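hi! just following up on the protien thing from before. the input was this:
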Amino acid sequence: MAEAQQKSEDPTAASEGQQGASNPAVEDVWDEERLEKAMKTLKEMHIQLRGLRTTVPRLISPLATKQPSPEVLFQEFSKSAETANKEIQRFRKLMGDQDTLQVLEQARKSRAERPTGIKAWRVTDHPDWLDRDT
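and the predicted 3d structure came back as:
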């Protein structure tokens, strides 16, 4: 009881309560909605990363096939380079997004707090893992 009175009389405690969002305990609350959003972010990141595995083969594909002329070769290679660049930039933007960084930080904290009992993710458990939710 005395501690509660000291906290209410402490001006720093009152200012911390007014700030709200800067309170680490408030930021660490992950309700179901926030967890669902985090799972969608991770799924999108996984889909994009999986798609990047074929970037180099698709990039050099015009070089590996016979083209009718050097101009067509240049156009096709330019298109594939532009497409590859857009895919990479989209992934970099997703990885640098503040929400993604928060999700990854929360995962790191959770793993540090409870390192045992983490179930490995299996593709066979999730056949729709590559389908984007519409």
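The first helix runs from residue 2 to 9.
The mean pLDDT is 80.
cheers
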